[in-house]
């Protein structure tokens, strides 16, 4: 009777937990599709307040009635623009001015010197926000497509922003669907059960819904600035990490079902065994991600809390909702491979990994030296990495309308036309600053902004517009505004105008934003990476109650990270034909690879320590590797596959990050965690736990070495 009452109470508790979470899911679920409504994709809004481009943007607000972002509609005919083409551009311009969000009247079309192109500058009110994408779509609809040899494209900053918004709109649909399908397929392969895959997938979906509520609320109330990149990473991170945690808990639950008759007792034992490792793993990732709050870029500072919220929600769901589901499913959830109570040693179910453990024991020093040398050789690929700021034409994996339009502008106009650098200077120094700016290589022309510029074409004889004692100069660059050459010109321009006495010159504009973003990314990388390593070292020391093991684990993960970057550099350049990586890529790759790579070492070494207490260190290493090998490798494959889903978004930055995380996670799970760490730990022996008491216990280690 007591057993029946206990079983009934356990079932009621599990039912109550599941029902409570289903209510939460019903409330939170709709928010998963609303994150795009509160996302912002304007690069300037992510800059630090003290960046020169930010100060220039603040000064620019005083020179216009309404801050605008220009769209550049360009018409081109290789045989020369005809009178009919000109009439079409003029008629289109009149219709553009009537579109809601466009600040008119518009200046007349600008003809190129070679007579093969016309360009219409269409200022769009910045207050439109994300609706700029809809305004650009209307402009494209009015302009129509290519016809009779005349090409028509909408480019410029507004065109680029519209294309980015369109790309990120796929997050709530295709990216989420692909991620779900990938996880489902892998779970079916891993479990070979028509039932069991439902539990981790349902729990991961619940995690995503819960995270979405908090992220949506913070973004809507301007606590964080959510962008499409962070939104995409949140999707794959929650499903990838959530499935990893589920795999670990389910594997331990399966072990305990061999030892306990009742599912409730098995889950209680499994939870006690797996929860500390899962919690430590999640805490490591959360703390590492929160280190991004040290970033000077708002975009990075937003990604940290967004991703950390995702992991926190995942931990909560996987340690409460998933166990309740598994208890209700009982042994039937594993059908047709139903675990029976046989008190069998867990190692007996892992034949392949028992053989790998035996190989590691027999050749420990050779294994860790060989794997370390191989990883070190892969780091040589770092010479091919070439971190830079990707240009507009290099940003997308597809050739978008804005890219095509920018290429036309670069062929027929000074490439910086439509996106000039802006120079703000004191009125009394304006002439000298203009003269100095004109002499900078890469600057095609410099002119002051005049009052008549606000209502019609520029008048060269009109006096400069003066606001609070300052004059605005526009410097047209000879190179495309998103090119490396244009960035060098901006740096030279800043250096030149800053030397003018008492000018207090400030240089901003589209290219200046890219320059300041790149500089901030470099600063962030140099500050945040050491902090993340220090934080992880402290967490590992507390978890493993040792100092040697954490140092070894961090060293192996850093080596794996550098090897991943080297291998990815070769893949990007020679297989994917990418021009390089964005300046933010090394930091993002580091945070995710090191945090997630440490995850798997925590899963392994926490189990190794548990077994070492009972068996001795070397026997514990072999037992830990044997029983965790399959589940951690499966978890790594899941995470690699989910991050690979980022490839459905045609952005080079996200494709590169997805490839890097996938490659790095596979290196960690297959090479580092399966061979390097166990072999190194086995070779060192009990001293790996120094200075804890376990380091002074050599029980069973001598016998294990003799047996091998």
UniProtKB/TrEMBL annotation:
InterPro entries: MMPL_dom, Mycobact_MmpL, SSD. It is found in: Cell membrane. It comes from the Bacteria. Keywords: Cell membrane, Membrane, Transmembrane, Transmembrane helix. The chain crosses the membrane at residues 12-32, 167-190, 197-219, 231-253, 274-295, 307-328, 366-387, 527-544, 551-575, 587-608, 620-641, 647-667. SUPFAM superfamilies: Multidrug efflux transporter AcrB transmembrane domain (SSF82866). It is a multi-pass membrane protein. Belongs to the resistance-nodulation-cell division (RND) (TC 2.A.6) family. MmpL subfamily. This is MMPL family transporter. The lineage of its organism: Bacteria, Bacillati, Actinomycetota, Actinomycetes, Micromonosporales.
